[in-house]
Amino acid sequence: MPSYPACPDHTAKGEIFKLLNPEEAIGMTLTETYAMNPAAAVSGFYLAHPDAQYFAVSKIGEDQLKDWAVRAGLSEGEAKRWLAPVL
Predict the structure, then answer these.
(1) Judging by DSSP bridges, how do beta strands 29-30 and 36-37 pair with one another?
(2) Which UniProt keywords apply (predicted)?
(3) Which of 15, 55, 62, 65 could serve as a FRET partner for 73 with CA atoms 20 to 30 Å apart?
(4) How far separated are the first and last CA of the chain, in Å rounded?
């Protein structure tokens, strides 16, 4: 699942939660801003490969924001809201 700082797009959690149904399975929920409850919950994309390395996404440009908004099906305003930490 998405998490900072390697994947600042938390909106993907919505689709993942629909597929996994963790609310019914273990009582884990999402807030409207995609924070997970309980607060001690952790999410991330985990790749098991000896050459895999952790990385962070640095600040992105306006062109990247606009491209992501189109691909995510969001307005530019919504995209700015979700990616504010990397703008």
Answers:
(1) antiparallel
(2) Cobalt, Metal-binding, Methyltransferase, Transferase
(3) 55
(4) 21
Range of the domain at 6: 1-43
Helices (H) and strands (E) in the chain, counts: 4, 2
Q: Which amino acid makes up residue 45?
A: F
CA–CA separation, 83 and 61 (whole Å) = 11
Both tokens of residue 20? 């996994």
| pLDDT tens track for 38-58 | 988 887 777 789 998 877 788
Number of domains in the chain: 2
- Answer whether residue 8 is part of any domain: yes
CB atoms within 10 A of CB 36: 19
List beta partners, residue 30. Answer: 36
